[in-house]
């Protein structure tokens, strides 16, 4: 018995097969779009973008002046390595004396190795000549050490923080810490130090750095919790440096939500 056909010679069975095939193909395409992978380099770029700019702990210092100072945290892009890793210049100063930073570092931001259960590494390094880099981010580009010089001035490795994307529903976007046992540190009687970092929405940063002696007693750093750094509301500096590592708004929204990592 022959199958029923339409005017163009298509049988009902054949049409059904074609429709099902189109539905399956369309569904697969939609699923790919909905689960579009975010690479580890995307994570590293987002973290670099979030670290950049001028931030203060003003609100926290006003809320708890006995334990926290109003500190200016300033970070900006300084160079890019051949493999795409970002070198950031980082300094901290009391808000009244921004021209006199009490801490200067290079930060190297890159994806975690695949064998580690993290997304982004943020490593801090000493600077060979800190005086040469003082107020680096505040200076015009032609008055700063250039990228080749920056790479040559990266000195000893100090710490590495291993960041993971926060679970959906948490206030943070990324959080992490140094490895168990921290890193060697001799300041103020310490034997080692630990660091914790959380990146929140609106690029708010929570830093908690502490030093411990050989007996495990804390000898420096805040005890109540991390320093909380937020963008200054009227700061134009943040707007200027957000242009250095531009990040599409769509990507920022995707990182704040849920997505799939591509190995």
UniProtKB/TrEMBL annotation:
The UniProt keyword set, sorted, is: Lyase
Tell me any Pfam family this protein matches. CpeT
Q: What is this protein called?
A: Chromophore lyase CRL, chloroplastic
Q: Which Gene3D superfamilies match?
A: CpcT/CpeT domain (2.40.128.590)
Source species, domain of life: Eukaryota
User: Which family does the record claim for this protein?
Assistant: Belongs to the CpcT/CpeT biliprotein lyase family.
**GO-annotated molecular function:** lyase activity
Gene name, Swiss-Prot/TrEMBL? LOC115749585
Q: Does the keyword Zinc apply?
A: no
């Amino acid at each position: 018995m022959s199958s029923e056909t339409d005017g163009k010679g298509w049988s009902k069975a054949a049409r059904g097969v074609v429709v099902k095939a189109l539905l399956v193909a369309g569904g697969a395409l939609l699923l790919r779009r909905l689960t579009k992978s975010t690479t580890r380099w995307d994570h590293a770029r987002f973290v670099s973008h979030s670290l950049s700019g001028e931030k203060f702990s003003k609100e926290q210092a006003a809320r708890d002046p006995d334990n926290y100072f109003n500190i200016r945290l300033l970070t900006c892009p300084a160079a890019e390595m051949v493999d795409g890793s970002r070198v950031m210049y980082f300094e901290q100063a009391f808000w009244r004396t921004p021209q006199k930073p009490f801490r200067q570092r290079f930060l190297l931001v890159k994806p975690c190795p695949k064998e580690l259960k993290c997304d982004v590494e943020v490593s801090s390094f000493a600077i060979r000549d800190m005086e040469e880099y003082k107020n680096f981010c505040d200076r015009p580009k032609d008055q700063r050490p250039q990228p080749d010089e920056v790479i040559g001035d990266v000195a000893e490795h100090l710490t590495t923080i291993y960041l993971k994307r926060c679970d959906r529903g948490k206030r943070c976007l990324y959080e992490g810490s140094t490895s168990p046992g921290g890193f060697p540190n001799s300041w103020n009687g310490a034997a080692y130090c630990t660091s914790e970092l959380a990146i929140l929405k609106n690029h708010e940063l929570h830093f908690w750095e502490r030093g411990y002696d050989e007996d495990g007693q804390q000898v420096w750093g805040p005890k109540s919790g991390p320093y909380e750094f937020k963008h200054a509301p009227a700061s134009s500096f943040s707007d200027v440096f957000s242009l250095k590592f531009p990040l599409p708004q769509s990507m920022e929204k995707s990182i704040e939500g849920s997505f799939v990592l591509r190995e």
